[in-house]
Specification:
Blueprint: H1 7-21, H2 28-39, H3 47-54, H4 58-67, E1 79-84, H5 87-105, E2 111-112, E3 118-123, E4 135-137, E5 140-142, H6 147-157
Parallel strand pairs: 1-3
Antiparallel strand pairs: 1-4, 2-3, 4-5
């Protein structure tokens, strides 16, 4: 779900998520996951709110958000395509598939198409090494990618 809120409305929603989870041991990651689940990303504007609530510095919160590649600082496209870049997938033709998908979608890794239809993200192992190369489209895994499957995926997400 992607939700666009600003100012007080955003802070109110984020504060509710923080209040719900701040009593957990090590609450930062669950809070960040909760915020991303609610908004589709972790808006930079909420980092100071999180830092203050957890008695952390903004730099500490930013460091965690920027370290983990699953956190986004901007809304994703309607579809999120994660392409495995780990060694097993690369050895089975993953580089060629990555180039093909980038050409078909007209975007590079970490980008969202201009029409907002798809975001392309690299991941470093989906656990499908025996079915390499692999990808995940909107949470569903796809194994044994080839040029034809790449074209099917590109056509599906650009609708």
């Amino acid at each position: 779900m992607t939700m666009q809120l600003h100012g007080t409305e955003l802070t109110t929603k984020v504060s509710a998520i923080i209040d719900e989870m701040k009593s957990l041991e090590g609450p930062l990651l669950p809070i960040l996951h909760g915020i991303q689940a609610e908004f589709g990303h972790v808006p930079r504007d909420v980092l100071p709110v999180i830092a203050e609530a957890l008695n952390l510095t903004r730099a500490e919160v930013y460091g965690v958000v920027s370290f983990y590649h699953d956190y986004r600082d901007h809304p994703p496209g309607r579809h999120v395509l994660k392409l495995c870049r780990a060694e097993a997938c690369q050895s089975m033709g993953g580089d060629a598939i990555a180039e093909r998908l980038q050409d078909l979608l007209g975007i590079k890794f970490h980008e969202t198409s201009k029409d907002g239809s798809v975001t392309l993200e690299p991941v470093y192992c989906l656990g499908l090494c025996a079915c390499a190369p692999s990808a995940m489209l909107d949470g569903e895994v796809i194994g044994r990618l080839d040029a034809a499957k790449a074209a099917e995926i590109a056509a599906e997400v650009q609708v």
